[in-house]
Specification:
Largest sheet: 8 strands, parallel, barrel
Helix content: 25-40%
Bound molecules: alpha-D-glucopyranose
Number of strands: 26
Radius of gyration: 24 Å
Structural class: alpha/beta
Shape: globular
Strand order of the largest sheet: 1-2-5-11-12-13-14-18
Number of helices: 23
Strand content: 15-25%
């Protein structure tokens, strides 16, 4: 009778791994196996233990993993060793992230390498480049429909360019983060093509149904990501049947209940790590496991898959970070760091998408208490984990993550998500925003909003009217949101161009490659003239203010991503405040009314140093409309 993985003596798994590496690497790998091996085997057994041949599969996987460990370049091993000694390395207050499309930012991967001095000047230490792997021909969702994970989009460069870039960035102290699109492949990926051609091995890589019976049953409880442009979750493919496509019809969801999918994808990740990618943005993590009768999001098995990937990364490339992209309500977010026995053993980072959407909502409603609520409901994280703080990214701002907060169920006064969506589309009388609704059926639907932060904060409208006062307020609003992202307990991320107040790309609709996708509104070309000018204009002012925040953050241990955080309470709901670490307070006026703060509960001093203005102040503290202050006790 074949042994199941649970019965296999643990030393035989260890042997499968260690036999395949040479003596020089064996010690390090053996120590890591002691720390992570048992968890890895247990997790994989839970996911795939009932599959025939599980044990042989696991042995083959471990041998292939060992080959990746053996192939890991020495410079990366040195980084691994350094980070194993200092697992807090990415939580330091000088770690600032930046996110950009390769082509929009600098044309090609080589172009990005030339922009390293710019990133250094800004203080960036973590660079997220949106997908640069070879994508599908034609529409490809901004690169999120990957045709070949082991090749670079020829328009952007070559694998050699990638390795040169990672080395250059590493030398500059900047970690490269790449997307790992693990929920789906493009329909022209070789696995998908083999599946279409009838190859049973690859047919089993996807969820394909012969008729609508099961898809219809699943649809009863599934949501929709692109209800307008890609309604439904299944696409009919001739010869294959109804294929699960959560996103666009050309993005085929992988069937992660198939252990071969796990093995192929895990090894892909390790190979990419060996090319010098130091962090992976795990795209659409919420959707990895399907379960009838549910929305097939955030399922326990999806977490187990991430934990198994993490254990493998910890074995082969412990210097690498995993970052979860899950656009889900706050209560579903924290489990992406691992829960129960696995707390701290899943992702190192996760986007705090609820906090981001709450910040825009707080601004539209002039209500800081909405942010207070979200902070109060954000639990402390396991050690060596952190949120990602951000204002904008390449996607729309999804409003549904705030559904609970909006009903008032979570304690605060209710608000209307539809109104927020209309506000950012410029469709309410009080709006200063120049964004657009995304995937909404009409004004009663709050799906998402598109637009660059600067346009949403009112800069475009103020420039149109030439109203200097309105422009000053709009600038403050943009900086207010960045001030929040930079002072919450998080690794903060700048979205390309926000550091210059770059506006919408109103021309996107003229480009046939982008016309049908509203999110290109906020994927403009970088304005290098403005970046280089650093002039006495809106861009220059915003740039200097952002660099000032980065400089202050760098010198303020209380702003480390894992330093303690609590929200301050205020009588006036317009105010939002945070206490961080020892004696640091950040205050934000989310409203157009001047606010006066007479006392700060929990602090028995009236004497403060304003770190951004570099001035001493005393209580009462005045906060002009949309102003903020970062204060240290004197
Ligand atoms: C993620 C990406 C988004 C993409 C989707 C499908 O949410 O951020 O841009 O459309 O995944 O890959």
């Amino acid at each position: 009778m074949p042994l199941s993985a649970a019965d296999t003596p643990p030393h035989s798994h260890r042997a499968s791994l260690l036999q395949a590496v040479d003596a020089e690497h064996r010690d390090a790998l053996s120590t890591r196996w002691d720390a992570h091996g048992e968890r890895l085997v247990r997790t994989l057994h839970g996911l795939y233990g009932n599959r025939p041949g599980h044990d042989a599969w696991l042995t083959r996987l471990l041998q292939a993993v060992a080959a990746c460990a053996q192939a890991r370049p020495s410079a990366l091993r040195a980084l691994d060793a350094q980070r194993e000694r200092d697992p807090r390395w990415f939580l330091a207050p000088d770690l600032i992230g930046y996110s950009a499309y390769v082509d929009r930012f600098a044309g090609t991967l080589r172009g990005v390498a030339e922009k390293v001095p710019y990133l250094q000047r800004l203080g960036v230490r973590y660079l997220h480049l949106l997908p640069f792997q070879q994508a599908r021909e034609g529409d490809n969702d901004g690169g999120f429909a990957v045709r070949d994970y082991d090749a670079i989009d020829p328009a952007l460069g070559t694998l050699r360019d990638l390795e040169t870039l990672t080395a250059r960035l590493r030398q500059a102290g900047i970690s490269l983060c790449a997307d790992f699109v693990l929920n789906h492949t493009a329909d022209d990926h070789r696995w998908a093509q083999a599946a279409s051609a009838g190859d049973p091995r690859y047919r089993a890589y996807y969820h394909a149904f012969p008729d609508r019976a099961l898809p219809d049953r699943f649809e009863r409880t599934l949501g929709q990501v692109f209800p307008q442009t890609a309604p439904g979750n299944f696409t009919h493919v001739p010869g294959l049947g109804w294929v699960w496509t959560t996103f666009y019809p050309y993005q085929w969801d992988l069937d992660w209940s198939n252990p071969d999918v796990f093995a192929d994808m895990a090894l892909t990740l390790l190979r990419l790590a060996n090319r010098g990618i130091e962090a992976f943005r795990l795209d659409s993590t919420a959707y990895l496991w399907k379960r009838e009768g549910t929305d097939s999001m955030n399922q326990p098995e999806a977490h187990a898959i991430l934990q198994a990937l993490r254990a493998l990364a910890d074995l082969v490339a412990p210097g690498v970070l995993l970052k979860a992209e899950a656009i889900v309500p706050a209560r579903e977010l924290t489990p992406y760091f691992g829960s129960g026995d696995a707390a701290g053993h899943e992702c190192h980072l996760a986007y705090h998408s609820t906090l981001m959407a709450a910040a825009w909502t707080a601004l539209a409603e002039q209500r800081g208490d909405i942010l207070t609520q979200v902070i109060e409901q954000t639990p402390a994280l396991p050690a060596h984990c952190a949120w990602l703080g951000y204002v904008r990214c390449h996607d729309d701002i999804g409003w549904k993550v705030l559904a609970d907060e909006a009903t008032g169920k979570r304690g605060g006064a209710p608000f209307e998500l539809n109104r927020i969506a209309r506000f950012y589309a410029g469709d309410t009388p009080d709006s200063y925003a120049r964004g657009r609704a995304f995937q909404s059926a009409g004004s009663d639907d709050a799906h998402g909003s598109n637009g660059m932060a600067s346009a949403l904060a009112g800069i475009a409208a103020a420039v149109e009217t030439g109203d200097a006062h309105a422009l000053a307020l709009a600038q403050r609003r943009l900086l207010l949101l960045y001030g929040i992202a930079f002072s919450v307990a998080a690794l903060p991320l700048i979205y390309m161009g926000d550091e210059l107040g770059l506006g919408n790309d109103e021309d996107y609709a003229r480009d046939p490659r982008h016309a049908s996708e509203g999110r290109w509104l906020h994927r403009p070309l970088m304005d290098w003239n403005a970046a280089n000018a650093d002039g006495d204009d809106t861009s220059g002012n915003i740039g200097r203010a952002i660099r000032r925040m980065i400089a202050v953050r760098r010198e303020t241990p209380a702003l480390a991503a894992d330093a303690s955080m609590r929200a301050l309470g205020f009588a006036d709901p317009a105010l939002f405040g945070l206490a961080r670490g020892e004696g640091f307070v950040a205050l934000f006026n989310m409203s157009a009314r001047t606010q006066i703060i007479d006392s700060l509960r929990g602090f028995d001093t009236a004497h403060w140093q304003d770190l951004l203005q570099d001035e001493r102040i005393e209580l009462p503290i005045v906060l002009e409309p949309y102003a903020m202050r970062w204060l240290r006790m004197r």
